[in-house]
C-alpha cells in the first residue's frame, strides 16, 4: 500500500495553518499585519486556506509610512478589493505633521517614528491581543531568536533573554490585560520556500519582485529606485535605467534593488538557488545602528 507523505512545503503549510487556527481559538482580538510584501502575500494566502470557505476572522493592518512604493499601495488596494477583506490602514499623523521622512531625518528616526511608533499607536487604538507577522527566522539573526508565539509587554517591548519555551509545538498563549503576542506562522520557512510556494500556489505578488528596467540612482552602495519626485539628487548623481528587481520591499528610499534579469517565477527561483547573499542586505534599516534590528524589536518594531 502506498504511504501518504506530505511534501516539505505541505508540511510547512500545515504547520502555519495550525498556528493560525490556534491563535483564533486562543485570543479574543487578533489581527494580521499586512506589509504587502511576498511573505505577507503567502501569509494571507494561508489565512484564506485556514478558514475557507469563510473569510479570515480578523482584519488586516497596514502601517503606512507614506513612503512605500506606489506599486505596493496599488497592489494592496486591488488585492483587498478582490478578496473583500477588512483592511485597517494606520498612519502616524503626528509624524506627518512633523514632516518626518527618510531623506530629511534619516532611516533610524523615520523608522522609529513612522513604523515603530505607528505600529504601537495602531495596537493601542484597536487593542489587539495577538498580531500575525510574516517574519522568518532565516531573514536576520535577531529574528532567529523569536518564538512563534512571541510575548510583548504592555508597552509592546520584546525581551530576547526572557522568552517562553516552545516544546513540541506547544504554544503558551497566556497574556494579561494590556499585554499581547506577536505570532510568526512563517518562522520555519526560508526565502526559497516562499518563492517555491508562490509558484506552486500561483499567489499574486507585487510586480516589483520581477526584473524590469527601472529608474535608479547609486547611493551609499545601494541602488535606490526613483519612485517619485521626492528624491533630492546629490551633486553628481544621475538617474539611469537598469534591469533590477527587489528581493524585499519597504520604504523605497531605504530599500535597495538588485541587478537581475529574472522576470518570471522560475527565473527567480533559479536565482535564489545560486545566490549567496541575504535578501535583507538591501534594507538600510537593518544596519543603521549597532545591533539594529534587535534594538528596534525591543522598542516595539515588528
Automatic annotation (TrEMBL):
Q: Which GO terms describe its molecular function?
A: sulfate adenylyltransferase (ATP) activity
- Positions the record marks as coiled coil are none
- InterPro entries given in the database record: PAPS_reduct_dom (IPR002500), Rossmann-like_a/b/a_fold (IPR014729), SO4_adenylTrfase_ssu (IPR011784), Sulfate_adenylyltrnsfr_sub2 (IPR050128)
Which reaction is this enzyme known to catalyze?
A: sulfate + ATP + H(+) = adenosine 5'-phosphosulfate + diphosphate
According to its UniProt record, the EC number is 2.7.7.4
Keyword Nucleotidyltransferase found? yes
Under the heading Pfam families, the entry gives: PAPS_reduct
Bilayer-crossing regions: none
Keyword Nucleotidyltransferase in annotation? yes
Keywords carried by this UniProt record: ATP-binding, Nucleotide-binding, Nucleotidyltransferase, Transferase
- Sequence ranges assigned to domain Phosphoadenosine phosphosulphate reductase in this UniProt record: 30-256
Protein's pathway:
Sulfur metabolism; hydrogen sulfide biosynthesis; sulfite from sulfate: step 1/3
Relate the assembly described in the record: Heterodimer composed of CysD, the smaller subunit, and CysN.
NCBIfam families linked to this entry: CysD, PRK05253.1, PRK12563.1
Can you tell me which family this protein belongs to?
Belongs to the PAPS reductase family. CysD subfamily.
Q: What does this protein do?
A: With CysN forms the ATP sulfurylase (ATPS) that catalyzes the adenylation of sulfate producing adenosine 5'-phosphosulfate (APS) and diphosphate, the first enzymatic step in sulfur assimilation pathway. APS synthesis involves the formation of a high-energy phosphoric-sulfuric acid anhydride bond driven by GTP hydrolysis by CysN coupled to ATP hydrolysis by CysD.
Q: What is this protein called?
A: Sulfate adenylyltransferase subunit 2
- Species: Sulfurospirillum tamanense
Q: Which gene encodes it?
A: cysD
Amino acid at each position: 500500500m502506498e504511504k501518504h507523505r506530505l511534501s516539505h512545503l505541505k508540511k510547512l503549510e500545515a504547520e502555519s495553518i495550525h498556528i493560525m487556527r490556534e491563535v483564533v481559538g486562543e485570543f479574543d482580538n487578533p489581527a494580521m499585519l499586512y506589509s504587502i510584501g511576498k511573505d505577507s502575500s503567502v501569509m494571507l494566502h494561508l489565512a484564506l486556506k485556514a478558514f475557507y470557505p469563510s473569510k479570515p476572522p480578523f482584519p488586516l493592518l497596514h502601517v503606512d509610512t507614506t513612503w512605500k512604493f506606489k506599486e505596493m499601495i496599488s497592489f494592496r488596494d486591488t488585492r483587498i478589493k478582490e478578496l473583500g477583506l477588512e483592511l485597517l490602514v494606520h498612519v502616524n499623523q503626528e509624524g506627518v505633521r512633523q514632516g518626518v521622512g527618510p531623506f530629511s531625518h534619516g532611516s533610524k528616526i523615520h523608522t522609529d517614528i513612522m513604523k515603530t511608533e505607528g505600529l504601537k499607536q495602531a495596537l493601542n487604538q484597536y487593542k489587539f491581543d495577538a498580531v500575525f507577522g510574516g517574519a522568518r527566522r532565516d531573514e536576520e539573526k535577531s529574528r532567529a531568536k523569536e518564538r512563534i508565539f512571541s510575548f510583548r509587554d504592555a508597552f509592546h517591548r520584546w525581551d530576547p533573554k526572557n522568552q517562553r519555551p516552545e516544546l513540541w509545538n506547544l504554544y503558551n498563549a497566556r497574556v494579561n490585560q494590556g499585554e499581547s503576542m506577536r505570532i510568526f506562522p512563517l518562522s520555519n520557512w526560508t526565502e526559497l520556500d516562499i518563492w517555491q510556494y508562490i509558484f506552486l500556489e500561483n499567489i499574486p505578488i507585487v510586480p516589483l519582485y520581477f526584473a524590469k528596467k527601472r529608474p535608479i540612482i547609486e547611493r551609499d552602495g545601494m541602488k535606490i529606485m526613483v519612485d517619485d519626485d521626492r528624491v533630492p539628487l546629490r551633486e553628481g548623481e544621475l538617474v539611469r535605467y537598469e534591469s533590477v528587481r527587489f528581493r524585499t520591499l519597504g520604504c523605497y528610499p531605504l530599500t535597495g534593488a538588485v541587478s537581475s534579469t529574472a522576470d518570471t517565477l522560475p527565473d527567480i527561483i533559479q536565482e535564489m538557488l545560486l545566490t549567496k547573499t541575504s535578501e535583507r542586505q538591501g534594507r538600510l534599516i537593518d544596519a543603521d545602528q549597532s545591533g539594529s534590528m534587535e534594538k528596534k524589536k525591543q522598542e516595539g518594531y515588528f
